Each structure stands twice: as structure tokens, then as C-alpha cells.
Amino acid sequence: MIVLGLEGTAWNLSAALVDERDVIAEDHSTYVPAKGGIHPREAAQHHAEHMAKVVRSVLSKAREMDRMPEAIAFSQGPGLGPCLRTVATAARALALRFDLPLVGVNHCIAHIEVGKWRTGSRDPAVLYVSGGNSQVLALRRGRYRIFGETLDISVGNALDKFARSVGLSHPGGPKIEELALCAKQYIPLPYTVKGMDFSFSGLSTAATEAARRHELADVCYSLQETAFAMLVEVTERAMAHAEKEEALLVGGVGANRRLGEMLNLMCWERGARFFLPDKGFMGDNGSMIAYTGLIMLKSGVVTPIEQSKVIPLYRPDDVEVTWA
Amino acid sequence: MEIGRGAEAVVTLEDGRVRKSRMAKGYRVPELDRQIRQERTLRESRITSEARRFGVPTPIICDISCYDLFMEHIAGSKLKDVITMELAEQAGEVVGRLHSGGIVHGDLTTSNMIVREGRICLIDFGLAYHDPSIEAQGVDVHVLFQTLASTHDRSDELRLAFVAGYRRTHGRWEAVLERVEQIKARGRYL
């Protein structure tokens, strides 16, 4: 089966065509703000403007290979309302135009499923970290349950905020990672874990304060070390609590090599296995939506047009996992 | 003899006493690692004893060294494995007493409550702290409700049973539960 997937919950607009085995085609266009952070309406306008080009590029490749989609999948949420609506409108139009079934996909679950698909992980505790989300999840009784999550902002948001406050341009994460490599010392910053939950807003502010008195490289390093230690600790707690022998890292912040290294060490120390998808599948991408749509469809899930309204606060545990 | 291994500590039984040793974690920088282990060991020894003054059953602490804690052995089952509506209600009473005393546990889960002869004993105070605020107690209860939802069937009923016990022992129960609803709505995408 071949599915066309559309993703555009935040920065990145992406369309992809996949079958059970691999990605057939993918194209994307990323919104870049003139300054500061993401502006939802501007991002949505960007998506609307580039939708036709991105979809056409994927479909033309499909035509060349004579492998046309048999269903349309789109990310229904969570995400920024205006962006979600733009993508959903395009998905509905395509489904109606080509008379294909439509599947609304939960964006968080798509990150998890594509990660499992690409790495071969079977039953992991998942650390999902991005600009909008920071969660630790695991499958239990037919749903991805949230074991821990941020009590305020996501880790990606904390890194971005700090980066902006010290004058680093967007995206801040990779620049912080690079600077951290030149650090000479660790500066203590607030470490906030509450049970299985964590909090990043105080840490981001403290790092901004520290940057006034210390070398920027040292602060970048200390911010990463502290934030990631919190995430790894909670992932380990979830593994112990849910009795999982695997950990999987997904989401845009997952592209940070230090975070992957720390999780790998944690797993090694407790005799568990660690799975890290290729970088191309870490950030938001159309393939994850297409693939998750595909396995959902094969398990019998279809989203009728009248139920295809976007869900900006869509929770992963709202979705019954019918395909596992 | 090893009797338990959690995410952060190994628990062994030595001469009838429990020894809880916080392990070094290779993934975090040594300064942070030492600081976390030391601070939590000290915190746990202090607050475990203090909680008893408010009528919260906890193990008796015998001795403490840098990263090790020696305490009374509570032979029982984790609440996680034996939970009933009655026990959930009793958990509510115990947590209510703790909160009335101005103590926040910091890691309330059904694995951190041991049931011995039908009585719940609260353990693992490594993340506990003093905070009489509604916000801190709200997060504490929120963390527990999350475990109920992720770990147990009939979590809605268990939550209600917990509340029935909690309101009996904690004067400000209503404000705390209101806050739990607000906390739930935070930290979400947008």
C-alpha cells in the first residue's frame, strides 16, 4: 500500500510518499521567521503558499515511478491551529479530488511509530523531545501512556529561549550544541525533576542569568548537561516503572548528539537497548505521517471528512492503538 | 542480598536492615552526579523521619553515609501490585497527612507505597521537600494521578477513592484538587 502524508504542525511543511518498506519520496519547505520565534499565522501562510509545490513534487515522483497513493494521511494535531487547518484543508482536498480515504494522524504518535519502524525497536520507553513537546511515553493496554512530561515549557523551547536571549539565531539548539563542545567547566544550574515530570522554564532563565557572568560556551554546556540529565533520569524511571527493556529517542531535539550519547550510556548501564533513528526522521517530517497513516489504515482506521477537524491539543493517550 | 533495584538506587538487605545505595550515573557530569546523589540521600533521611511526626507511616532510619541510607525493612507488597479501592482511599489519607504537615513527597507513585498488614507505609523521600503551598501539593497529587492513569485499570475510580481519603486528612483539599486541574492544562502544546 502507498500513502501520501502531509505534515505541517509548526515550522516544517513536508509531504511524503511511503509504502510498508520504505520512503518513496519526500519534499519539504521550512518557515523561517524574519526575527524571533514562530508566528502561527505567518507559518500557516508559508504552508499555504508552498503546499502545492511540495505536494506536486512528491506526486510527480510517484507518477514517474507509476506508484500513486492509495490514501491521504495528515497530522491532525497537536500543533498550532492555523498551521493545522492549512494542512487539513489540503489533505481533504486531495482525498476528495482523487477519491481516496483520509486518515487523521496524531503527530506525537507518528514520531514514535516512525522511530520504531526505522530502528526495529519493538516495545520501548520513548523520550519525545521537540520545540513543542517533552514527554516520556510507553505503550500500555492499547494506548501510548504519558509517564512523564514537562510541567511548563518543552526542552526545545527552553533551548530556543536561552539562545535568543544571548543573541544566537534560530534554530538555537544546534548552535548551543556546537558551543558546548568548547566548554571548560560545569556551572551548577537548577535541576528540577518532580516524580516523573520535569520543568524547564526556571532552568532557561537561570542559564540566561549565568551567561552574564560566565563564558557562553560554559553556560551552553551546563544547560545541556542539566536539561538532558533530567530527561534521561525520567526516561530511566519510566523504564524501571513500566518494565521496558528498550529506550527510543524521537523528536527534533533528539538530533542532539549529546542527548543520544547520554541515553545510550544510561541504557548500557542498566543492560537495556537504545534506539536512535536517522537524523532525517527526527524533526517533523511527512514520512512519519504517511507511515503512521498506513499502519492505521491497514488496521481499519479511516477518518471521514466530517471527523477530520484539527485537534490542536490532541493527546497521544486519546488514540487507541489498533495496529500493534 | 539484593531485594530491589530502582532507576537510581540498589536496595539490599543486610542483617535485617535495608541498605539503599544511590548509584553513580555515567551519563551525567560528575559534579552534578555527586550533588544529586548526596542531596537526595540527606533529604530522604531527614524527611522520612519527619513525616512520621505527622502520622505518616515510614521506615525508621538507622544510619546514613554519603550515598547510602540504612533503614528498617518494611516487608510487604508494593501498592502497585495489590491496589484496591480501600487502599487507594488509605493512600489519600496518608498523603493528606503529609501535606497537612507541609511536606511534599515529590515522587508519589504506587511503587513508593508499601502495604504491610493492610497498612500503607510511604517510602522513597529522595525528592521530598518542605512546601506548604497549594501549587507544590497540587503537583504532588498530579504526579500520582498520572501514575494511576498510566499504570492502573479503573484509574478514574481509584482517583475518586484517593480523594475520599485525602479530604478527610487535609483541610485545604479542595484548593489542591482545583490546582491539579489547572496543572493538567499546562505544559501542553500551545
Please give the share of residues in helix of chain A. Answer: 40-55%
Structural class determined from secondary elements of chain B: alpha+beta
Q: How many strands in all of chain B?
A: 10
Q: How many structural domains can be distinguished in the coordinates of chain B?
A: 2
What is the element string of chain A, with H for helices and E for strands?
A: EEEHEHEHEEEHHEEHHEHEH
Secondary structure elements and pairings:
The complex is a heterodimer of chains A (324) and B (190).
Chain A: E1 3-7, E2 12-18, E3 23-30, H1 40-64, E4 71-77, H2 81-98, E5 102-106, H3 107-119, E6 125-129, E7 134-140, E8 143-149, H4 155-165, H5 172-180, E9 193-194, E10 197-198, H6 201-210, H7 216-242, E11 246-250, H8 257-269, E12 273-275, H9 286-298
Parallel strand pairs in A: 1-4, 4-5, 6-11, 11-12
Antiparallel strand pairs in A: 1-2, 2-3, 6-7, 7-8, 9-10
Helix pairs in contact in A: 1-2, 3-9, 4-5, 4-6, 5-7, 6-7, 7-8
Chain B: E1 2-5, E2 9-14, E3 17-22, H1 30-52, E4 61-64, E5 68-72, E6 77-78, H2 79-82, H3 85-100, E7 103-104, E8 113-116, E9 119-122, E10 129-130, H4 134-151, H5 155-169, H6 173-185
Helix pairs in contact in B: 3-5, 4-5, 4-6
Descriptive notes:
The complex is a heterodimer of chains A (324) and B (190). With 324 residues, chain A is an alpha/beta fold. Chain A folds into 2 domains: 3-111 and 281-318, ATPase, nucleotide binding domain (Nucleotidyltransferase, domain 5, 2-Layer Sandwich); 123-278, Nucleotidyltransferase, domain 5. In chain A, 43% of the residues lie in helices and 19% in strands. Chain A contains 9 helices and 12 strands. In chain A, β9 and β10 form a beta hairpin. The radius of gyration of chain A is 20 Å and the shape is globular. The two termini of chain A are 18 Å apart. Chain B has a 5-stranded antiparallel sheet with strand order 1-2-3-5-4, covered by helices on one side. In chain B, strands 6-8-9 form a 3-stranded antiparallel sheet. Chain B has a two-stranded antiparallel sheet with strand order 7-10. Chain B is globular, with a radius of gyration of 17 Å. The termini of chain B are far apart. Chain B folds into 2 domains: 2-72, Phosphorylase Kinase, domain 1 (2-Layer Sandwich); 77-187, Transferase(Phosphotransferase), domain 1. In chain B, β1 (2-5) and β2 (9-14) form a beta hairpin. Chain B has 6 helices and 10 strands. Chain B has 190 residues and is of the alpha+beta class. Classes of the chains: A alpha/beta (324), B alpha+beta (190). At the A-B interface, β8, β9, α7 and α8 of A face α1 and α4 of B.
